[in-house]
Amino acid sequence: MRAYGILLCYSSSVDRDTNAISAYKLLEEIARPTQLPDGAFSPFEAHVYLEECEPGQIEGRFVWKSSDQALEVPATKPFTIPIATARLRMRATYIEFPPNHGKWRLAFEHRAVGSGNWDRESITWPVDCVPELTTISTAPPAP
To answer: Which pTM value belongs to this model?
Structure first.
């Protein structure tokens, strides 16, 4: 199995006639609230596109990697993926925010169901995580 694409977006749709997928508002920068309540998720979707798949089932998950490789945290909980064809498009919602601001890369990992070791795909999606603006000034600029 090999990933040939990964992305982060606000939403997506699949055309029922052509089976073509459209991703809307691809994200390379996200605004992370400074104070997140426990269990808070982002409104984003993560997509991965796989080929050379063997029929069966695997477990997959998305992971945040800091740009300096010092920190890795799950972006999703592990999920089971049934595979019936040689190519697979997979979408996950309820993506967790990176744990802090900075430069991150979204990666995809998979393993055999019940196995202990995760295999990481080499392709990643870059994301700058910046502080969310909490105040907007409506005052006119000073002369």
So the answer is: 0.85
